[in-house]
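TASK: fixed-backbone design
INPUT:
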């Protein structure tokens, strides 16, 4: 049955995040030919229309209030609620990012909707929409269907490959009223500039306590650079002060699903596996052949990371 789907597109540094296109691809499956409406927020929103239509949006709600240039729960909640009222969707999808994780539960609670969060697959089976999501820290998967109300889900980055469909979209300049904000962002100060976004990286090179110092991360950074990837870390490495907590992968850190995950000097504690075990190919480098990381690895190298990682970098440079 055709369904009207609303997708909240998310941008970072003035360009759309890939997960926005992945959410639109999920929308194509769910809509079964129904209308797909994308909502883009902030002063740059109008610039995103072309790309959103390329991935299947038939209509784009451009909400260019400058209060939406930087995310605040309050402002985004007010804007999205007004878009939902206007669009009257049967399905709402948004990226499972820091923004989605913060905003979706609030929308769900205020609108009295059920929320299926962190979905890695969406299929339509016998006319019913089936959401798949990991549970027990990625050890098992559950399939869910929503039996009443609006279908509302957040989509984990890097799981539903974005598919271009071409096409054009009708643009709706949509004015929202944003008032009584309790938080106003005056300035954003970034710790690091540029680099590949860890959550969306196709290759992640992660270091653990085995790197022994912040200096020890350098060979990992070089390998990540050659592979066009991002650097991650275990909590062990973060706790030891070798790197920033923003790099932490795992149960209490970021969840990543890259095509290639290289774990160097990481033992493979269950809490770390929760953040990376769904990676497509896992390579482990550890000098302890009994390290649990080898149980989830597709390829294991027993050796000293300070010897192995530079060798890999040299080899990949030749490709
Ligand atoms: P270690 O366990 O100390 O392992 C270091 C490894 O490096 C060893 O296997 C060693 O053989 C190897 N090694 C040493 N030197 C070299 C070398 N030169 N070359 C190659 N290998 C070498 N952890 C996370 O990662 N993410 C989380 O989100 C997270 N959340 C947690 C939440 C809770 C509630 C709790 C209790 C724990 C959490 N942890 C998390 C911590 C987790 O339990 C582990 O303590 C942590 O992952 C260990 O980090 P590590 O593998 O880097 O260190």
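OUTPUT:
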């Amino acid at each position: 049955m055709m369904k009207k789907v609303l997708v909240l597109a998310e941008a970072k540094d003035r360009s759309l995040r890939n997960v926005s296109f992945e959410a639109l691809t999920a929308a194509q499956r769910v809509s079964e030919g129904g209308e797909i409406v994308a909502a883009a927020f902030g002063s740059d929103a109008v610039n995103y229309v072309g790309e959103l239509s390329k991935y299947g949006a038939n209509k784009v709600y451009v909400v260019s209030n400058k209060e939406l240039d930087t995310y605040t729960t309050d402002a985004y909640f007010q804007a999205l609620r007004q878009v939902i009222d206007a669009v009257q969707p049967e399905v709402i999808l948004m990226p499972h990012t820091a923004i989605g994780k913060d905003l979706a539960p609030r929308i769900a609670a205020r609108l009295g909707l059920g929320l299926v969060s962190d979905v890695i697959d969406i299929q339509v089976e016998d006319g019913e929409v089936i959401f798949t999501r990991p549970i027990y820290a990625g050890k098992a998967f559950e399939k869910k269907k929503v039996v009443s109300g609006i279908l509302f889900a957040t989509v984990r980055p890097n799981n539903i490959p974005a598919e271009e469909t071409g096409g054009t979209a009708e643009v709706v300049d949509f004015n929202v009223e944003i008032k009584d904000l309790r938080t106003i962002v005056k300035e954003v100060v970034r710790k690091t500039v540029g680099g590949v976004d860890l959550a969306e990286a196709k290759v992640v090179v992660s270091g653990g306590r085995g790197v022994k110092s912040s200096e020890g991360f350098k060979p990992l950074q070089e390998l990540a650079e050659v592979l066009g990837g991002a650097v991650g870390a275990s909590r062990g490495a973060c706790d030891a002060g070798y790197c920033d907590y923003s790099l932490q992968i795992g149960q209490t850190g970021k969840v990543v699903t890259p095509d290639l995950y290289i774990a160097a000097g990481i033992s493979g504690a269950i809490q770390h596996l929760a953040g990376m075990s769904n990676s497509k190919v896992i390579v482990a480098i550890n000098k302890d052949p009994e390290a649990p990381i080898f149980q989830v690895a597709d390829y294991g190298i027993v050796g000293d990371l300070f010897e192995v990682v530079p060798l890999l970098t040299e080899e990949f440079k030749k490709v």
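COMMENT: The mean pLDDT is 95.
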